[in-house]
Amino acid sequence: MRRFTNDYNPDGKEKRSEARQAAGNRCLRCGHPYECGSHGKGEWSHCDNGCTHAGELRITKANGEQSLINASHMVKFMLSPSYRAGRYIIRIEAHWRILTVHHMDGDKSNDAWWNTLALCQRCHLEIQGKLDPETPFFLPHSEWIKPYIAGFYAKKYEGRNITRQEAEERMTELLAYELKCP
Ligand SMILES: [Zn+2]
Ligand SMILES: [Zn+2]
Q: What pTM, to 2 d.p., does this model score?
């Protein structure tokens, strides 16, 4: 049995950058965008129309006024012309959503495509809390994570590293390894 390690691969930085690019430089789960090198310490980063999250936001108005809010509306809605009309919002930034890479099976040296999920810090924490690779899943998966789970199962049950294309093609069959009806 392979011993898991917490060490990153020496070329892990490049692999993580590839994982981000494969995800279109956005969090796979909440859509928050990533611009390499533009986030300083990473506390605040710009939102755009691709964001599907709400949460802690910093709003900047045309007159420079800033306010911090905990939004229940999705950013996408707040960026819409109808919402912005009269509110003079020129910028929305989210709190702690820099794009990290989550290793699905917990093995940080395994940089297979299905094992490296580009997730912002917040989604990373939530997924890590919910997803225990050792425990069989019994709830339906969200659409965005299905190909990665399929790749993970191919490795876990068939001992093979498959391509993303194969994961897409055999999705139903692969997910059925654990997704059982009660
Ligand atoms: Zn996210
Ligand atoms: Zn955002």
A: 0.85
Q: Which ligand is located closest to the Cα atom of residue 29?
A: 1
Cα separation, 91 vs 43, whole angstroms: 15
Is the Cβ–Cβ distance between 22 and 52 less than 8 Å?
no
Amino acid identity, residue 151? G
Q: How far apart are the CA of 147 and the centre of ligand 2, in A?
A: 23
DSSP string, 96-125: S--EEEEETTS-TT---GGGEEEEEHHHHH
Ion ligand 2: protein residues whose beta carbon lies under 5 Å: 32, 47, 51, 75, 94
The string of pLDDT tens digits covering residues 22-62 is 999 999 999 999 987 776 677 899 999 899 999 999 999 99
Q: For residue 164, what pLDDT is reported?
A: 95
Contact 78, 92 (CB under 8 A): yes
